[in-house]
Structure formats: C-alpha cells, structure tokens
C-alpha cells in the first residue's frame, strides 16, 4: 500500500457505529485510569489539537461529528494507549 493510500484510509470518515464504539472506549479508559476529560483536552493540546471540555463532551456523546471530531477520537485512543503503556 502506498503512503498516500494509507493516509486516505487513516483520514477516512468514521462510520456512526465506529464513533459510538470509540467514544465508549475513551470514556471507559478514562474511568479505568482515573483520568478526566480535562486531562485529555490538555494532552490533545500538547499535540497541537485545540479543543475544550465542551467540544470533547459533545464529540463523546455523539452530538458533534465531522473530520475534526474523527481526528480527536482517533488521537484520543492513541494518547490513552500510550498513557497505559507508560504508566501501566
């Protein structure tokens, strides 16, 4: 697979059921790791993604959708995976 083809797959819009699943995973992981959405907003900011607690809440509840929202969901999963690996 070519790099440009991979970028298309990674940036492809999420399906509604994927958004629901990812949102549930993010909320559950935050709870398990005793982290807050404010913490996640801060971690997103460190990567250059500007959002706030209100926007993140809307994304996780499914009331807000779009390319930025999909990117935030994907990045949040990655950040939480990295946090889990670093701190067990």
Structure notes:
- Helix 2 (16-32) runs parallel beside helix 5.
- With 88 residues, this protein is mainly alpha-helical.
- Helix content is 74%, strand content 0%.
- It is globular, with a radius of gyration of 13 Å.
- The protein has 5 helices and no strands.
- The N and C termini lie far apart (33 Å).
Helix content class: over 70%
Overall radius of gyration: 13 Å
Number of helices: 5
Note the main sheet. none
Shape: globular
Share of β-strand residues: under 5%
Total beta strands: 0
* Structural class computed from helices and strand pairing: mainly alpha
Mean pLDDT: 89
Separation of the first and last Cα atoms: 33 Å
**Spans with pLDDT under 50 lasting ≥5 residues?**
1-9
H and E string: HHHHH
Write the layout of secondary structure elements.
Elements: H1 3-10, H2 16-32, H3 37-46, H4 53-61, H5 67-87
Provide keyphrases for this structure.
88 residues; mainly alpha; 5 helices; disordered N terminus
